[in-house]
Amino acid sequence: MKLVAYKKYAIYGVALFAFSLTWLLVVMPISIRKILRHEVALKKGWPMRGMWEKYPFPLLFHIYVFNVTNPASVSRGEKPALQQIGPFVYDEWIEKTSVQDHEEDDSVSYLSKRTYRFNAARSKNYTGDEEVVIPHLFAVGLINGVLRMKPDSIFLVAPALDSILRKPESAFARVKVRDLLFDGLLIDCNVEDFAGAIACKEIADRYEHLRLKLVGKKLYALSFLGTDNGTATQARVRVKRGIRDLQDLTKIVSYDNRTKLTIWDDEGCDRLHGTDGSLFHPFLDRGGREQLTTYTPQFCRSLVASFVAKVGLGAFCVQLLRYTTDLGVDGLGQAEHKCYCPGGRTACPRRGVFDLFKCQGQPLVVSNPHFYLADPAFLGAIGSGLEPDKAKHAIEIDVDPLIGTPVRARLRFQLNIQLQPVQEVPLVRGFPEVLLPLVWVDETLDLPRKFVVMIVAAHAIIGLSKLILMCTTIAGLGMCCYAGLLLYNEKRSSSSLYPNNGELGSTAATGNNNGSGSVSPMSGEEQRSAFDIIKTKIFPNR
């Protein structure tokens, strides 16, 4: 029976071990990949597609405005003193319109639409009717634009501003926050003088590119978000669906029907690469050795985010990968950034800012909020009101490495405008040379709890399945070991029962020898003695 038992244990153990190990190392990874492909690939009718096309929840769009408290002093060349006002919080609803599938290359194209709705409950008693003092965006923007594009025409700027702005006394303006962000600052082009007419003709020809809104006859509104609110973009984005290859999920194929940019006059900087930022491919490297690259149309460039730490998902036993990036460029320190220099490769600004003129046609400069990570000279040019803080101003993206979904994000940026003295324009003749912050934005994503629970459940199911298979694999190995132990004991018992050099063998070997090397037959006494020894071994208690 013992022989049958060890065979049985051996057969069951080998079968269980092989089955469990095969499921753990082969079948389960294939099954998980197939399940995730169905869950996250952007095929029409599959679960992720609907959520990707129209977010079922809003992002929170926090805006902080910088109020210049000493405009007269700045006009005389002193450092600006700033006061941060906000947050003004808006629910940001994101959807993709005019969605088209392209089966030939497993891609999908769309137009992006964002709608902003004021969230009074989160705005801490701010209403948008608060007034702030800022540089007049049209006046300073026109000066900077002419200096960049047509410096020989700078002498026309002063009379044009007198005509369009009705002889302003200062280059600063007191405006409502609501007008600055959405409703717009009015630009009245009903003018007849030569300089004003030339400027207004340029506006009429390019007002959409300049992000102005036509609100009446030769009347335009200038704001940061007014032209974007509730309006689909004109540029079509095309990305991979990830059906054929999950690793390609949401990778950019083309933007505005082009497979590369024609902005930076450099093959590397004009290259379209990365995802659209909505999703990343599943099975990210859990050690953070993989960078996340996202193409950002607002900046006409790809941003590369690097891993910084592993963070927990609330009270759940799930670890997310945290990434960060820097919006500024370093044309002087990094060769690959030289193509972003506004004055060409030989005229690069200090580290930490990015000029948007070539991208948007607007004389704005983007940076991290409060010049976080930028060259200290930018902060030193501001008298007061800025305090860079990593916790408040750094970009953070927490991604689930299994599914590739951003669970938490803090996308932060600051818009600045260059102030500089221009002798031909009396309004700014006494200005200091300073990059002046206007507003900064904290766009936040916190995945709602029901979606977090789904992610946690996926991790739990996979983790539990792996644990069960590991236990059964160990159990199978244990059964094999137990079968080996039974076999060992069986052989040991057999050796003990019929010893080669034991008492029976000694008795037989020491029988009468006739001198020729042969053993003589045992006598009756010897045979009875041998029998007694065998009986004692088999029945020791009798």
Structural descriptors:
single chain; 542 residues; alpha+beta; 13-stranded antiparallel β-sheet; 19 strands; elongated
Number of strands: 19
Strand composition percent: 25-35%
Low-confidence stretches: 501-519
**First-last Cα distance:** 23 Å
Coarse morphology:
elongated
Residue-averaged pLDDT = 88
Largest sheet at a glance? 13 strands, antiparallel
Structural class: alpha+beta
What is the radius of gyration?
39 Å
Number of helices: 13
Helicity level: 25-40%
3D structure, described in words:
The longest helix has 49 residues, at 449-497. The protein is α+β, with helices and mostly antiparallel strands. The chain contains 13 helices and 19 strands. Mean pLDDT is 88; it is low at 501-519. The strands form three sheets. Strands 1, 2, 3, 10, 11, 12, 13, 14, 15, 16, 17, 18 and 19 form a 13-stranded antiparallel sheet that branches. It has a three-stranded antiparallel sheet with strand order 6-8-7. It has a two-stranded antiparallel sheet with strand order 4-5. The protein is elongated, with a radius of gyration of 39 Å. The protein has helices spanning 2-40, 47-53, 71-75, 137-149, 157-164, 177-183, 194-206, 357-360, 376-380, 390-393, 449-497, 503-509, 524-538, and strands at residues 59-68, 82-102, 107-118, 131-135, 172-176, 185-188, 212-216, 219-222, 231-232, 237-240, 252-255, 292-296, 301-313, 316-324, 353-355, 365-367, 396-399, 406-419, 434-446.
